[in-house]
Amino acid sequence: MAKNKPGRSGFTSYPWCRLSQTLLFLNVLAVAATATATADDSNFPSSPIWSPHPSKKLTKPVVLLISSDGFRFGYQFKTETPNIDLLISRGTEAQTGLIPVFPTMTFPNHNSIATGLYPAYHGIIMNKFTDPITGELFNRNLDPKWWLGEPLWVTAVNQGLKAATYFWPGADVHKGSWTCPKGFCKAPYNVSVPLEERVDTILSYLDLPETEIPDFMALYLDQPDIQGHEYGPDDPRVTEAVAKVDKMIGRVINGLKKRKVFSDVHVVLLGDHGMVTNCDKKVIYIDDLADWIKIPADWIQAYSPVLAMNPRWGKDVKNPGEKNAEVVAKMNEALSSGKVENGEFLQVYLKEKLPERLHYSESSRIPPIIGMVGEGLIVRQNRTDAHECYGDHGYDNMFFSMRSIFIGHGPRFRRGKKVPSFENVQIYNVVADILGLRPAPNNGSSLFTRSLLLPFGETAQVE
Ligand SMILES: *[C@@H]1O[C@H](CO)[C@@H](O)[C@H](O)[C@H]1NC(C)=O
Ligand SMILES: *[C@@H]1O[C@H](CO)[C@@H](O)[C@H](O)[C@H]1NC(C)=O
Ligand SMILES: *[C@@H]1O[C@H](CO)[C@@H](O)[C@H](O)[C@H]1NC(C)=O
Ligand SMILES: [Zn+2]
């Protein structure tokens, strides 16, 4: 989630969602999920694991989306992960991981996964930020005005399907036909609820009559992010947390098998971002730039892993944009002078000039000046600010350490298939396609779903 520290959940103070709500009509359209015994296709490796769809208990497509916070790509090689391995061998995996959006933080990424939009378009541009125009603070607020775009649970209920969410960041915001119905929308986040209880609650929905089973379910697991922050990604306690997450996946698989729906339910396992240590003690001190430019602390909204600056110009300043450009130029001059300690690890931009690949300019909520911080580096105002050693994320999404995992398993996912890494904004379309939903406008490519999914109804034609 956010920055480390035990008991850091300002979260637990969120009011419980009080509204219970009439559940919407089930999806009459729900055509039978495609069976997968296809004679297709050139994309399949001739894999012995691939076998015809053995049973078909559910007659509608169901998606269970599971997020493991801070599950850095590569963690699956730290220890035995037999359950994750099972999903991989029988499903589709992003072979070198899932690419998060920038900034690689929890709230922006969970909302990009849910909406298919980059943060500039879904509005959650950091976990915590101040709107430069209104001066209002966003700190995981539930007021829908902050949450732009249309998350999957809203798309689902707007189009007559049912949805359920468990601690998914932002899922307790009321939008469209989604009112976070009691019993099907577990919130607010509570770190003390055991992962087993979260998994079992989701599984219990599958005991409902089929028409009542949520078509879309989203489950949030806060490990191994907690341990990664506290001890850094290489600590044995992170390895233990990875094993724990794998156990939870095993619990999901067994629960589905027990209910004879393991081959019917689409399980998508992913993470929001990776983790990197900042224990190398490479720090950039803003006050070290003073010979070039003095930057007051109250211009800075966030130091690292993303430097976010909103200079406060007086009323007399006619062209703040020009002044901001001067600040950027002066800062970069200082940083590249060779005279600022670790200066080479920070580059400052007017947000409009950030590399296009970051998609991080088209929002008035993004402060005018953004500094891209080197991998694992820390930015502080001055040397009196204590530096503790821990793990962090939020850095450039180009860094491999920020990557997470993606595995899709179920009738529509190609079996034993590896795909190249892709950005998490693609996932919205994939889930919408499986559920037969009309996607809201988003930043994924509609063609992308073809690389992960078997065409809908393909088998009908083949048979
Ligand atoms: C959080 O969960 C624990 C364990 O279930 C429970 O005892 C506690 O009351 C919960 N806290 C809140 C604020 O709901
Ligand atoms: C260091 O920066 C902090 C703000 O981050 C400020 O409160 C403190 O007074 C500064 N100390 C010195 C010695 O400038
Ligand atoms: C992302 O999607 C939104 C909504 O369709 C659109 O306005 C925006 O231009 C898109 N941005 C990019 C970079 O594709
Ligand atoms: Zn985190």
Describe this structure in words.
- With 463 residues, the chain is an alpha/beta fold.
- It has two domains: 62-276 and 399-452, 3-Layer(aba) Sandwich (Alkaline Phosphatase, subunit A); 281-387, 2-Layer Sandwich (Gyrase A, domain 2).
- Helix content is 22%, strand content 15%.
- It has eleven helices and 18 strands.
- The chain has an eight-stranded mixed sheet, sandwiched between helices.
- A hairpin with a 3-residue loop joins strand 11 (300-302) and strand 12 (306-309).
- Helix 5 (195-204) runs parallel beside helix 7 (236-258).
- The longest helix has 23 residues, at 236-258.
- Bound molecules: 2-acetamido-2-deoxy-beta-D-glucopyranose (3 copies) and zinc ion (ZN).
CATH homology superfamily name of the largest domain: Alkaline Phosphatase, subunit A
Number of domains: 2
The ordered string of helix (H) and strand (E) elements is EHEHHEEHEEHEHHEEEEEHEEEEEEHHH
- CATH topology tier name of the largest domain: Alkaline Phosphatase, subunit A
Number of strands: 18
Q: Main beta sheet, described? A: 8 strands, mixed
Query: Helical segment tally?
Result: 11
Helicity level, as a percent range? Answer: 10-25%
Task: Identify the bound ligands.
Answer: 2-acetamido-2-deoxy-beta-D-glucopyranose, zinc ion
CATH class of the largest domain equals: Alpha Beta
Going across the biggest sheet, name each strand in turn. Answer: 6-5-7-1-8-17-2-18
In the predicted model, the low-confidence regions spanning at least 5 consecutive residues are 1-54, 459-463
